[in-house]
Amino acid sequence: MKFGVVARRDKEEALKLAYRVYDFLKVSGYEVFVDPETYEHFPHFSKEDLVPLNEMEVDFIIVIGGDGTILRVEHKTKKDIPILGINMGTLGFLTEVEPNETFFALNKLMEGDFYIDERIKLRTFIDGKNNVPDALNEVAILTGIPGKIVHLKYYVDNGLADEVRSDGLIISTPTGSTGYAMSAGGPYLDPRIDGIVIAPLAPIALSSRPMVVPATSTIDIRILTTTRNIILAIDGQFYTYLSPEVEISVRKSPRKTKFVRFSREVYPKYTLKIKKKF
Amino acid sequence: MKFGVVARRDKEEALKLAYRVYDFLKVSGYEVFVDPETYEHFPHFSKEDLVPLNEMEVDFIIVIGGDGTILRVEHKTKKDIPILGINMGTLGFLTEVEPNETFFALNKLMEGDFYIDERIKLRTFIDGKNNVPDALNEVAILTGIPGKIVHLKYYVDNGLADEVRSDGLIISTPTGSTGYAMSAGGPYLDPRIDGIVIAPLAPIALSSRPMVVPATSTIDIRILTTTRNIILAIDGQFYTYLSPEVEISVRKSPRKTKFVRFSREVYPKYTLKIKKKF
Amino acid sequence: MKFGVVARRDKEEALKLAYRVYDFLKVSGYEVFVDPETYEHFPHFSKEDLVPLNEMEVDFIIVIGGDGTILRVEHKTKKDIPILGINMGTLGFLTEVEPNETFFALNKLMEGDFYIDERIKLRTFIDGKNNVPDALNEVAILTGIPGKIVHLKYYVDNGLADEVRSDGLIISTPTGSTGYAMSAGGPYLDPRIDGIVIAPLAPIALSSRPMVVPATSTIDIRILTTTRNIILAIDGQFYTYLSPEVEISVRKSPRKTKFVRFSREVYPKYTLKIKKKF
Amino acid sequence: MKFGVVARRDKEEALKLAYRVYDFLKVSGYEVFVDPETYEHFPHFSKEDLVPLNEMEVDFIIVIGGDGTILRVEHKTKKDIPILGINMGTLGFLTEVEPNETFFALNKLMEGDFYIDERIKLRTFIDGKNNVPDALNEVAILTGIPGKIVHLKYYVDNGLADEVRSDGLIISTPTGSTGYAMSAGGPYLDPRIDGIVIAPLAPIALSSRPMVVPATSTIDIRILTTTRNIILAIDGQFYTYLSPEVEISVRKSPRKTKFVRFSREVYPKYTLKIKKKF
Lengths: 278, 278, 278, 278
Prior knowledge:
Four copies of one chain form a homotetramer. By secondary structure, the first copy, chain A, is an alpha+beta fold.
């Protein structure tokens, strides 16, 4: 088995734990690779073990950090490599274990005593082409100028679903349903549901409602505001300005995100965390 | 082919149209049966054609009325007989055609030019036994005294999903998602989603959120308020008071509701109606 | 100075503390009276000191309990006697001190080192007559049958404000804005605002919104559902069924509720408690 | 009496009506001045009557346009000149009459048969200095990067009211309560209430609620996100980027906006328009 190790760059505790994980796995006889950005902030790893995330070909990536770190890894890796997340963030909807459980978790992993939790991702097509990362959480189409509404229509499987004047539109996976989509009024979506949440962000019309559509749907967005650019934000990580004339289309990606889990528990695991959001 | 005909009892226009439908189908050579309650309010049907809904064995039931009339038919029929709904209500989320399209729709039906839209229903078990109707829209567990909260816990597949102090809890099918569940803050659920909405009704805790769980889930509710009875309301049609000590369990029913449809359109058909709710 | 003492009846700790307060005040040389219901659950007070709440003429009432106990006292007393609330409930939006601060607070009270916080109340007129208690929190007009909507119109100063189909309508003081009105989606209303929150409860129309109107307004409610009685609930304490034909009118009461406070703090005192609601 | 005339620049119908109003008032013997921007789009007014808005000293300004046009006039004029708004926008919360009532309204105005509706405005201080326009609708403190939350605390009269991670914070007058604040979940605030709505925009914490505080309050905002600039947007008209280190303070302005009204009606005038928002 080969492992990758990535840590949150702005937290020394995370970097140190990453080094201990790296050391433990090396000593246990495995090949271990480290993300150069992690190395940059903690230059104690062997230089020969550095491999950029987009070239990493390993069996598992151990990510020490918060949900943001996992999203960063997801956006950079090219293959659906299973991720074991060790929580060094706040709530940790995506991470699986707390720091004190790290080596216990690694042992279970090495013994094969785990389960792979596959999560759907969303792929965005701009004028028919996909050249932006897949979303594990959400695709957000936002007004280019905060406070100025964007006027748009969106279609589900070619049928007009709604026309909204709002700060934007959030299109979210079940994984992302506890994030931005929930701030916009969307529901919690059980990860076992093969569905997508669509939620307008601060819409003018009080009758605009979040909806849940099949993950097999094609969601097409057309911008009616012609005078300013819009923003496409993916997972709060990738940002780009787009002309209002583009045709945006969002569909389930052929790729999945794979998480190493030690239990199949959904409740109260995620719903408890919702209550702790702050 | 055999037909059943049922009309909304409080609207003469609906009763008259029911008679014209009955007459048209008889003249066309079919066996047609009429609900005795419809007859009671419009005693022009042949007495020999009267058959109570719970004994009707026909190929299609033509329902002239609103969503309430369809729910009443659903609660009384014993088999999953396809329903063609002619809208004599307000919005008509369940009905398929407007009154002026009636005979056009009947012709398409007779020619076989239609499609059957199957909708899931929810079955409620009280202390392990099911002796209440299946819900096409929603199962509502409500405080027995309006204005006094009920304190309850609910579990999804044996995991604690939430503990709420509220006016009640709405457990809704996709079909019911535009009804009571939406008034409680729930999302629109595309009918193609095999899911269930769970929405607390006016919860004290501001962090309690509607959720969408797989339709294959078992939802168990335990009442913690011990001093007063609760109400179980199914589809706004069937009501019963229950002791707070009962164990309530809700699961997908083996039965389905079948609707005759002339198109597979979902958008904007349903989402437009949401905006017209008043 | 004369004192009244009232305790929550279902909590021995509260009853015991009430006795200690009673004893302390007696020993300090004051006249102290006790609510007979408190005596009934803790028969150690002198029988000669028993005076029913509706006959109590004292300078201060010390209430040991939760918000419900204070609301019960408010509904029974005939004069606007200042209340010092000692929190033996959960959040205690109305109470001023925690049990461990009791004697410290009593000393400040005896030394005159306090401030009176006057809160508005709402008076309800049914067909022009007032024979129900004033509301310190809210007047709720509710469907008589949970799960069946009530259809009503309400007018502010004779102008039609909204027509709603809902589980009911909440008319709340600033004091009550953290209670039932907030569960219905209403805002937090600073107690210094001379206003009233009107919030529909689970309305069918998604465009129905909570509103805040001047406390000098007359709010008239007309019920359009003619087939079943409605419920009038005041502060979750007083309940009555009413014919749908009654004319209900709600106005600011000439009475106020007076609370003994030791600081004029509003923030974060109340807003912190909102976050702890569960 | 002297008049000013201003029209929406992008609608020929509005410009033409402005000319007819100008002509009618001139013929009636009044001094009439025209905004140069209106002239630029419709160069038929006498050049000698051109006076920039910030130098206009007239008794009334007739504004032909939507709410945006009125907000533009408000931001530019230096004195609290009464405005008569003729609706050439969509809903027209601020305008008083429809185009077909124009000359009827002008006659009433000349006869003195009207009433002045004074509305409060909000003044914003940045590091203690006010150099931005007053807000008739709202002051919005927004994330500089759409989709990236801003973390802030806000204080009411020096007490911490809430700490939020959100897309921003809306601080709104009663006039603005039907606008951006309502999209953020805020209530309708009757214009007679001397209060301010504070509403977080898409907050992460589900327990963050809109609140209504006295208009006499000082609202202080401190930004905890240190890495990026924020946006201050006033009435959707004035925009500026600010360093996260600034101290922002919002208070009621000494200035008011004055509207010419022909009735004191509040209901259903404004509440009906809420339902028509789209």
